[in-house]
Design a protein that fits this description.
Elements (H helix, E strand, L loop, with lengths): L5 H28 L6 H22 L4 E4 L3 E3 L6 E9 L1 H5 L6 E8 L2 E9 L4 E6 L4 E3 L2 E2 L12 E4 L9 H14 L2 E4 L3 H9 L5 E8 H13 L3 E4 L9 E7 L4 H7 L2
Helix pairs in contact: 1-2, 5-6
Length: 261
């Protein structure tokens, strides 16, 4: 891997450190499935512990950098030029059910642009990394988006509406429209990994409404550096940390965009 900025090295180190406890926690989940208490509280504490380790590691090197994180919220919010965007467990429902489809996701943003990022699935030992101008990698191998040319042949992934969504009907009708026009649609349960999977060609495209910025920050740079396109649509300026995203291999981008209009 030829990624050598201090930021990417710091993120990789923080992810590796945080993942050790997370792997251990995941091993405990199966025992909890049959307990009366259930895994909910346990997952919340695993989430917070992972976040705490990530933030501690990142702050050791740059105590003044801003941080946007799922659990801790905004740290050093006056620094908007240098920020870490942190999601300790993206795919908590999968994690809670013992499904190994979740990831730690950390992006580094400078002057409102994501410069580098890491998405790490510790159970599968798959680390997706990218740095602006230096390409995208899965572990030590360079990755590229698929070369699928037609939407009808494409495998698309989405996340569907969250349980609290007020626009479920709109999202379901979009889903129906897309699924009628593509080869297949999948729902895997981790926005970060959905982006990473488009970046390495496993999926040809991804779209989802009502995402949090930390779900996709690292994925933005990984996908762009792998040759893909990322678009945000129908942006609500009153919710700057919410995103509606469309991400593809670039070939099918316009066709998918038409289907979700």
């Amino acid at each position: 891997m030829r990624l050598d900025s201090p930021q990417i090295n710091l993120i990789i180190k923080a992810c590796m450190k945080a993942s050790r406890a997370l792997i251990r926690d995941f091993g405990e989940i199966e025992k909890l499935q049959v307990s009366t208490k259930g895994p909910g509280d346990f997952v919340t504490s695993a989430d917070r512990r992972t976040e705490k380790i990530l933030i501690e590691e990142l702050q050791k090197a740059h105590p003044d950098y801003g941080i946007i994180s799922e659990e801790a919220g905004l740290i050093n919010k006056s620094n908007i030029n240098n920020r870490w965007i942190v999601d300790p467990i993206d795919g908590t429902m999968n994690f809670m059910n013992g499904i190994p489809q979740f990831a730690i996701s950390v992006g580094y943003e400078e002057e409102n642009e994501i410069k580098c990022g890491v998405i790490f699935n510790p159970i599968m030992n798959e680390m997706f990394c990218a740095e602006k101008g230096n390409g995208a990698f899965l572990n030590n191998s360079r990755i590229r988006v698929s070369n699928k040319k037609k939407i009808k042949d494409s495998l698309i992934v989405t996340g569907g509406p969250k349980s609290m969504s007020k626009i479920k009907g709109k999202i379901f009708s979009e889903y129906i429209n897309v699924s009628k026009n593509v080869s297949n649609v999948r729902k895997f349960g981790s926005a970060a990994l959905d982006m990473a999977y488009v970046a390495c060609g496993r999926f040809d495209g991804y779209w989802q409404r009502e995402l949090n910025y930390w779900d996709i920050a690292a994925g933005i740079i990984i996908l762009k550096e792998a040759g893909g396109f990322v678009d945000f649509f129908e942006q609500d300026d009153s919710s700057p940390l919410k995103r509606n995203i469309l991400a593809t291999n670039s070939n099918i981008h316009n066709e998918l965009k038409e289907l979700i209009k």
